[in-house]
């Protein structure tokens, strides 16, 4: 069972990302931890961690937090972001993970000014491929593979993160079916993922399609193209018209 961390054990240092559903920030583990802190976490004293706090507005948000926690435990692997512990004391529900120093691959490619060598790109992409293969081998679909969800360690190795949209294959039982061109609201409610990385079959206006392993593979191919070309993926007008 994953360790429980008290909010008092952390000192917030930097805001990293905010979305409608969560807030991500860097924090330091205090040098004087409460007596109830699990022993293995003492190794993190005076180190930086990342806290992903779920914004709670209803019971469904707590269920979403618990679901991602359970998936991170189930999917534990060297190429999947490590769950160090959780904060689970109302009103704060959060996942605590390592602070991967170089940040997301998207930022490295498009905002850092850093130019990755072909070898460095190959290492990152190989690591992501290993992560996806692991997820599929245990019956889990990631459903939101993109460069923002790939974190790079100081040594250049990569991990796949953010299982918020992930799902067990066994829980996906039928296609999404609509009788007319779907609206933006339909996609927000029924289709997960990030539009530029989504497989075309998920955008079809009438038939729809259940999410499959092939959809993850398509998203990974888009990531490979983005990494090699160093060009952000842009939504083509034709795709935009399908979903509006």
TrEMBL record:
Q: Which GO-annotated molecular functions does the record name? A: ATP binding; protein serine/threonine kinase activity
Tell me the keywords, alphabetical order: ATP-binding, Kinase, Nucleotide-binding, Transferase
Return any one Pfam family short name. Pkinase
The UniProt entry, under InterPro entries, shows:
Kinase-like_dom_sf, Prot_kinase_dom, Ser/Thr_kinase_AS, Ser/Thr_Kinases-Pseudokinases
The Protein kinase domain covers which part of the protein? 10-244
Is this entry keyworded ATP-binding? yes
Q: What name goes with this protein?
A: Protein kinase domain-containing protein
Q: Can you name the source organism?
A: Chrysotila carterae (Marine alga)
């Amino acid at each position: 069972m994953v360790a429980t961390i008290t909010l008092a054990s952390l000192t917030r240092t930097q805001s990293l990302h905010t979305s409608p559903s969560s807030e991500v920030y860097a924090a330091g583990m205090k040098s004087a931890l409460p007596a109830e802190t699990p022993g293995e976490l003492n190794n993190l004293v005076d180190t930086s961690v990342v806290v992903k706090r779920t914004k709670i507005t209803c019971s469904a948000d707590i269920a979403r937090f618990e679901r991602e926690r359970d998936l991170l435990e189930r999917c534990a692997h060297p190429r999947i972001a490590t769950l160090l512990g959780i904060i689970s004391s109302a009103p704060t529900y959060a996942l605590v993970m390592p602070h991967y120093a170089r940040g997301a691959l998207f930022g490295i490619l498009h905002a850092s000014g850093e130019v990755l060598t072909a070898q460095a790109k190959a290492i990152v992409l190989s690591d992501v491929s290993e992560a996806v293969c692991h997820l599929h081998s245990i019956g889990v679909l990631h459903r939101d593979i993109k460069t923002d969800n790939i974190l790079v360690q100081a040594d250049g190795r990569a991990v796949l993160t953010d299982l918020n949209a992930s799902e067990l294959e066994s829980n996906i039982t039928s296609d999404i079916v609509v009788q007319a061109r779907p609206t933006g609201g339909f996609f927000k409610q029924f289709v997960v993922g990030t539009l530029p990385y989504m497989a075309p079959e998920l955008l079809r206006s009438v038939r729809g399609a259940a999410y499959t392993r092939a959809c993850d593979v398509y998203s990974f191919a888009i990531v490979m193209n983005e990494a090699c070309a160093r060009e952000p993926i842009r939504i083509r007008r034709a795709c935009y018209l399908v979903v509006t």
